[in-house]
Amino acid sequence: MGVSERVVGRLILYRRLLKDLADEGAGYVFSHELAARAKSTAAQVRRDLMVLGYMGSPARGYAVRDLIAALSVFLDAPERQKVALVGVGNLGRALLAYFVGRHPQFTIAVAFDADPQKVGRVVNGCPIHAMDSLGQVARQEGIDLAIIAVPAPEAQAVAAELYKAGIRGILNFAPVRLWAPEGVYVEHLDMTMSLGRVAYFGRR
Amino acid sequence: MGVSERVVGRLILYRRLLKDLADEGAGYVFSHELAARAKSTAAQVRRDLMVLGYMGSPARGYAVRDLIAALSVFLDAPERQKVALVGVGNLGRALLAYFVGRHPQFTIAVAFDADPQKVGRVVNGCPIHAMDSLGQVARQEGIDLAIIAVPAPEAQAVAAELYKAGIRGILNFAPVRLWAPEGVYVEHLDMTMSLGRVAYFGRR
DNA sequence: GTAACGCTGTGAAACTTTTCACAAGGATTC
DNA sequence: GAATCCTTGTGAAAAGTTTCACAGCGTTAC
User: How far is CA B36 from CA A183, B23, B42, in A?
Assistant: First the structure.
């Protein structure tokens, strides 16, 4: 029973929307309401939620709290996952600020940078280590996931070090298609490609 | 003849890979070589390239220079497209540094921020205007596209202003699903969703 | 009670995307 | 020049994803 990347992405979105609903005090929600917030369709929402096993009531819809709980059981690891950030340039610092605190299921536990000036500092509560200690520190800290925010030419070498350190997933911001061994999941977040697409479709 | 988002994304990737190949001095390339670099398959590459009308030689493959040219005719606007950045926080500054210079087909012509401290400054060659001048300045400068890098609660209001100013495409970094009018293309680049997916698939 | 309503869960249809498989054809070798 | 090789372009099959459509049901109205 493998769930596709698309479905998982939407489930993550639904959970966020449901948290907004909970904050607004909603107790129940219908698939078409969730769909309106997700800019999707009711049928799509119901189909996606099938993978959870959780069932809504035909008359009241989904209990917001319970559905959030079911989504969290499905999406989250039993324990908080530790993330390493590699590359503390402009983008890396922005990512630290963006992720720190906001997401209880992740901790950016350590960062790495090649610049000796940055090594030893603590940014947003995250200590910066030397790049050549990557493997050792990552193993020692029990890091599960990594975010790569280094220049394109260095990304593949960084990834190789991460694989050796036993990392299981990578979020790659460098505009390079990374090779990954069996069993490691890599997501490429290619901002240049995204802007290119906006430019293409933005003129019909 | 509508080309899908996925195909356009891969064409953008192929052009980047072909530029690398050109820099390495390659004159011709086979579909399976391009596929290896794109972490894809030869059949996929050939199918994607069909939309260009450009044809390779059965014996030599694709002429690198010519294929780059055909891709550029397909992907790029006739004139350089002007982009506005809205929100010059940590992420906005990182995006300015990331995009400026590197992409001849775009210019980040102006930026906007709500903080009066930042208004009037020039970051990476890009002048920062007040948020309430958004509509006026965007029209005046003839802005085609926008990048939204403001906090989530402000994103929809910013988008509404951009629509009024006649923008045609948006790249949205805020974790909010934006509503868009007919004819405007919005791409959601949701970093939290991406990290969530890495966390999910990174443990099988 | 009973009827009416409008929802969920889900088979099946429709549509989209990827992969297969092969005819056609240049280049190279003999 | 004929044979061989390995490629491209593309119909057709396969796989994947979304949408349709409706049976079944809890709730509310009367």
Answer: 19, 17, 8
Q: In angstroms, rounded to a whole number, what is the distance separating the alpha carbons of residues B64 and B33?
A: 12
pTM of the full structure? 0.95
User: pLDDT tens, B124-173?
Assistant: 999 999 999 999 999 999 999 999 999 999 999 999 999 999 999 999 99
pLDDT in tens, B43-91: 999 999 999 999 999 889 999 999 999 999 999 999 999 999 999 999 9
Domains and CATH numbers, chain B: 5-74 (1.10.10.10), 81-194 (3.40.50.720)
Cα(A162)–Cα(A146) distance, integer angstroms: 8
From CA A112, how far away is CA B18, in angstroms rounded? 31
Protein contacts of strand C with Cβ less than 7 Å away = A 30-32, 42-43, 46-47, 49-50, 54-59, 61-62; B 4-7, 40-41, 43-44, 46-47, 57-60
